[in-house]
Amino acid sequence: MIARLSGVLASSGADSAVIDVNGVGYLVSASARTLAAFGPIGSAVVAHVETQVREDAIQLFGFAHEDERDWFRLLTTVQGVGGRVALAILSVLPPADIQAAIAMKDTASVARANGVGPKLAARIVNELKDKAGSIASGAGPALSVQAVAASPADSAARDALSALANLGFRPAEAGRAVAEAQAELGADASFGDLVRVALKKSGS
To answer: Three-state secondary structure along 92-152?
Structure first.
């Protein structure tokens, strides 16, 4: 089973690349984010690989970073999410944003990916809400985002997250800023104070 490839980028397409390893070209499917990270043709690349074996084919999925590969594995555990759909999600949302979207039940962000409708986005969020914490995507901040968003009674925090989102913050950025504000102000902080401190934390 291939788990890692280290070689030279021989070619790159819309959703795949060929990595030359000592004269052998390996075709790997990849997200737009990973393909951009690989750089131009001729670059030295390292790809973390997920190998899928089917009756009629062996397919390699390559990732520039291990956390993206780990999220690919987790996404494909959801019924209806195959390799192509998982890559589409990873193309529009980096791992930290996927984790934040799931924590905040933000199905709209997940549904931005090609091939993901509202029903599938809701299934992804519902099925992964208890599993997302097993992936260390950004370590401390990601856990803080979950802690804030997973608290139904904390309406001030939820409202603050929504306010920052309306100001153009990405889910991960909003969650991180509100988590830091809540840690500083305490659990009883008001909506206004949370937004004020969160904006200060984010540098706005």
So the answer is: HCCHHHHHHHHHCCCHHHHCCCCCCCHHHHHHHHHHHCCCHHHCCCCCHHHHHHHHHHCCC
Residue whose token pair is 């997920």: 50
- The domain 4-64 is placed in CATH, from the list 2.60.40.1120, 1.20.120.1200, 2.40.50.140, 3.30.450.40, at 2.40.50.140
Domain 67-136 has CATH 1.10.530.10: no
Q: How far apart are CA 50 and CA 198, in angstroms?
A: 38
CB 68 within 8 A of CB 31: yes
The per-residue pLDDT for range 19-78, each reduced to its tens digit, is: 999 999 999 999 999 999 999 999 999 999 999 988 888 899 999 999 999 999 999 999
> 170's torsion region: left (phi>0), alpha (psi -120 to 50) or beta?
beta
